[in-house]
Amino acid sequence: MRRARKQTVTRPALIVDGSDSEFRQLVHDLLAFSGRIEAIRNRFGERIGLTGRQYTILITIAHLQGSEGTGITAVSTHLHLSGAFVTTEVNRLIALDLVEKELDAEDRRRVRLSVSAAGFMRLDELARCQAQVNDALFDCLDRPDFQALRRIFSELVDCADKAQMLQSYLDGIEAPSKRVANKDR
């Protein structure tokens, strides 16, 4: 006997014709896209001798540094990563002479990061290939779609942070593995 599956969402905006099937398809498409974009990022990193995350941090510093450099907090906020993780990876990039660090002139407790000449050489080496791949990656978007996607994903990151906190809270009440183990008794 087939058992009816419980819905995985309850918000009316996510249910179509009484079903969560379109929601599930969206999640699966997002997972597929996420995996592909992470693989592309990792290949960009490999191409210039870095991990994918190191490449992402290097190019983020390049984009944020302006004429004064940028800080760990700005990089970690921009990438939605912990400051501790960014600090560890930045130190590796410094050891590779791809990033330079100096004390902030106004607040000596902070550092200012900038991409070194060697770092820019690697990013410039990657740019032609990167532009072609990024153009192909988002080929299906026109400008309005692109603007909408940027807005939506920014909002989804905030929603995901809240969902993770809720999940941690709910896991603290009673972890799913404990519930399953208790049913077997």
Describe the structure.
It is a single chain. The chain has 185 residues and is mainly alpha-helical. It has two domains: 26-139, Arc Repressor Mutant, subunit A, CATH 1.10.10.10; 141-174. Helices cover 65% and strands 5% of the residues. It is built from seven helices and two strands. It has helices at 21-47, 52-64, 72-79, 83-95, 117-137, 143-173, 176-183, and strands spanning 99-103, 111-115. The chain has a two-stranded antiparallel ribbon. Strand 1 (99-103) and strand 2 (111-115) form a beta hairpin. Helix 2 (52-64) packs across helix 4. It is globular, with a radius of gyration of 21 Å. The two termini are 24 Å apart.
Secondary-structure element sequence?
Answer: HHHHEEHHH
How are the strands of the biggest sheet laid out side by side?
1-2
**CATH-assigned homologous superfamily of the largest domain:** Winged helix-like DNA-binding domain superfamily/Winged helix DNA-binding domain
| Model regions low in confidence, pLDDT < 50 over at least 5 residues | none
What's the rounded overall pLDDT mean? 90
CATH architecture of the largest domain: Orthogonal Bundle
- Total helix count? 7
Compute the separation of the termini in Å.
Answer: 24 Å
In total, how many domains does the architecture comprise? 2
SSE blueprint:
Blueprint: H1 21-47, H2 52-64, H3 72-79, H4 83-95, E1 99-103, E2 111-115, H5 117-137, H6 143-173, H7 176-183
Antiparallel strand pairs: 1-2
Helix pairs in contact: 1-2, 1-5, 2-3, 2-4, 3-4
